[in-house]
Structure formats: C-alpha cells, structure tokens
Amino acid sequence: MEQLRAKLSAYGMLSEETMADLAQLLRPHFYARGDYFLREGQTPRNIAFIVKGLFSQYYASPDGDMVIKKFFPENHFAGSVPALLTHSPSIFAIRALEHTETLEYNFYDFKALTEKHRDLAAFYIRYMELHWIIEKEPLEISFRHDNAKKRYLNFLKEYPNLEPRLKQHEIASYLGITPTQLSRIRADM
Question: In whole angstroms, what is the distance from residue 157 CA to residue 170 CA?
Fold first, then answer.
C-alpha cells in the first residue's frame, strides 16, 4: 500500500479519508508468467497497480503477429482505459511477462469515489492529462516518423532498466520491427 501511496502522491496529496476509502477497493492479486490480466475481446472492469513484475499490452494483427503497445513495469497502472470508458470489449490483451503482484480495483467504484473526493478527482485528471495526452502525442508522432534506431533509443529512455527483462522479440514487437532488425541496430551502436 505504501508503494501505491507514493505513486499517488506524485500527482498531489490525498487526504487520509480518501486513502482509507481507496484502500477499501484494493485487492491483491498474483499472476504467474503467461497469465492474463485481460484477454482480447473481454470487457474489462479493473485497473491493476503493478507492485512487482511486468505486464505487456498487445494485440494480434490480422496476419497473426503480436504487436506490443505498452509495457507496465512496477509502479505503473495497467488497464484498457478506452474499453473501460466505453464499457466495451478490449481490442488489447494484457499479459504477465514475469510473475507479477498487483493491487487491483474496480474502475467504476474508483470513478464513484472521484465524485465523493475532490482530491481523488484531481489526481485522476492529472494522471489522464499526463499519460493519455501529454506523453502519448510524442510517441504517436515518433512511431509514424522516426526510424527504427530512434524508436529504439526512445524505448530505452521511456523504459530505463527494462531491456534486460525482455526478450528480443518483445522489444522488436514494441518497436514495430523484426528481431533481426533489432540485432542490427544494437550491433551498430
């Protein structure tokens, strides 16, 4: 809980009453490597805070390739937010790449708490602004216009210390290149 409290406080202070109400929503969960937090086509209900471990968010392309959209290491929130907001099936799957411990909460119960606690609503707005608007736009531009080497350098910057925990094909999938192309980029550096 202290790990989550520290993460939340990075966006602003929450009152003890807010933290107590939020704590009532939290449920610890363990995922073995390969377990799904969310399957493609499933309508999600929960958000997971990663205490320890690693998730990836991906979709299967029409030709069957796995395309990784995002990694969720420790101290990150994982979920299919567009599917949660629209109450619709997720086009992504979220799966554990390592044994992973989470604290999970029902998104709709959380949203109800934002009506009760202004400080929690302010946290939610700041979080969404930073991660769904400010951070997302440069990534979208990079994936459309930067070459593979630049995208790899951006990956290293966005996810410091994550590379040794991932398989080459997982990084390549995130970058939108083949493992062979990634090997060449690494060799040229």
Answer: 17
Task: Please spell the DSSP secondary structure of 24-62, one letter per residue.
Answer: HH-EEEEE-TT-EEE-TT----EEEEEEES-EEEEEE-T
Please state, in angstroms and rounded to a whole number, the distance separating the CA atoms of residues 104 and 118. 21
pLDDT in tens, the chain (189 residues): 889 999 998 888 999 999 999 999 999 999 999 999 999 999 999 999 999 999 999 998 888 888 999 999 999 999 999 999 999 999 999 999 999 999 999 999 999 999 999 999 999 999 988 877 777 777 777 777 889 999 999 999 989 899 999 999 999 999 999 999 999 999 998
Positions of E strands within 61-129 = 66-72, 77-78, 93-96, 100-106
Helix (H) or strand (E) holding 82: helix 81-86
Task: Say what the pTM is.
Answer: 0.92
